[in-house]
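Exercise 3.2. Students should predict the tertiary structure of the chain below and write it as structure tokens, then compare their answer with the key that follows.

Predict this chain's 3D structure.
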Amino acid sequence: MKKAGKIGIRILMAGVLFLLLFSGGALAEKALTASCPSRSGETVKARLGKDGYVLSLPGFWDLTKIRLELEGSGTVWLGNDRLEIPAGAEADLTALAGKKTVIRGEKQSDTGYVTILQGSAIPSLFLEVDEKRLQQVNYDKEKQITEGRAVYAEADGTVSWDGPIDQMKGRGNNTFRYKKKPYQIKLREKASFSGMGKGRTWVLLANWTDVSQLRNRIMLDMAGDIGLKNAVRCVHADVWINGQYQGLYLVAEKIQVGKERIPITNLEKATEKVNPSPLDFGELETVKSKQYPLMRFYPAIRDPEDITGGYIFTIEKYHRLQNTKLEGFRTRENLSVHIKEPTRPSKAQAEYLFEAVSRMQRALDDPTGTDPESGKTLDECLDRTSFAQMFLLEDWCKNYDFTGGSIFMYKDSDTIDPKIYAGPAWDFDLSFGNMADKGTNPKGNWVVSVHNSSNIWWALDRHESFRETAAEIWKDRFRPAAAVLLGDAEPEPGSRLKSLDAYRAEIAASVNMNYHRWPVSKDATEKAARGDFDSAVNYLKKWIRTRTESLDQRYAETNK
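Answer key:
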């Protein structure tokens, strides 16, 4: 009886231990934090999930000098060998990285599991903001956080920024509705991240629907390599918010007027100078008439002497301009335009840009490439090279949003350059076959498949001079860049572009951390996802090769 009783007690104790290990026991109420004092000095927090803690560490931290602290416990033991880590002491976690291991505190109830992960050798961004305000921002894109702190550490741990932020908010249209939120942050002062131009405002792209995490990076780097003016620079970075790992993001420059961004005349600043301070811009007014099918502007704003530039605007989707109160207009030729800068255009500014865009579109629609009203030719209205570069970018990757949404253009003052320029390139998560309903086939026509005047790419392609320019750029700049991406050629010195295999290796560890934090998106196209990162990159590589060979055939015929 005594022996049976002892066996029963052992079974009971084993059962209790099993429950503690698999349920997290009292650990569910205890915070587990880590730091690497020899580096940036930041502290990160483990996240408690169904399989225990997941501790995500920056790629630049030295795994031989990690401090672990478990709330309420002076000492932590890790693994079956019971590696002892007193609070404040540095420990070598190299052998435990990437593994799920037992963690114990001083109390018997403080027993569970921890998976220790380390990111790739890429930059890290740490944000500290009010937690309540963060929840509001994650729920409502109109909400903002107006104070906080940011630390940006380069891949080697060098800190490029450690200081206050004046703004953090959600961004994006479709992308904001997903669990992993995209953000925009504004620093107190200008800073350069990873050699990108100095700026206060930075964009954090979440890439939720892209299992490869590479589509936006590839396209923004490609835009720079083929020579598109003012191409956006970007880097992959791991992001922590209030100590919690938020995921792998693409940190990118914001598209805006500025010396290190788009260096054109700053019409917004010129407008502010001739208006009372603080500027009372009044209510946004909507006008619909025979002359202006749809126009939205701020009637209370006074104008500077020169209102001919600079402007940044996007070709917008019809329904978005129709249903959302966006500053801008719709031309008589049915092209919808959202004015991005100036952020609050006056009536005269909106009317001026309306005429400039309409003039360009009339020249596009005319068989001779001449606007019948002004007599201006297509080459007098737009920069043919930048439009051909953007045409190739949108067509090569089969961007789902090629007809509107993130199709940027800009125009300087007429006193400097009267032409409209295409770019910078932006927003390519739904490209390279990552679309559920169309565009998954890498062959065939794409941007010229929609035959109406509101599709500027189809209108451009009808002009022989434009087709010849596109073919020349494909041969001289685009095709060599594609060869680098496919691993068929080495990048030139100073090139932004890498091979797909190099991109894969650069972010693989951080992708692993990201998918421990977030599940593989069900919103990604099944073919493009294939369930995991490596399969997604392999799909991408095969798709790009087939698409590139298809366009080789098309432009070989044009170059004859």
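Discussion points: The first strand starts at residue 32 and ends at 35. The CA atoms of residues 23 and 358 lie 65 Å apart.
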